[in-house]
Design a protein that fits this description.
single chain, mainly alpha, 1 helix
């Protein structure tokens, strides 16, 4: 009995996954979002390093 329930659950999940994949493949009407270009610019040429002044 326990094996039948687990086997049925596995088959159910495989069928649902296949149906979702077929739906995703067959849907051509969805609009794809694309970016034309991404621009980056360097504002300052500063360094974030700490300077330690030590006397030896």
């Amino acid at each position: 009995m326990k094996n039948n329930i687990l086997g049925g659950l596995v088959i159910f999940l495989v069928v649902v996954t296949c149906l979702l994949m077929l739906d995703d493949i067959s849907s051509e009407g969805l609009e794809q979002t694309t970016y034309d270009s991404i621009h980056t610019e360097q504002i300052d040429n500063t360094s974030d390093l700490a300077i330690l002044d030590t006397k030896e």
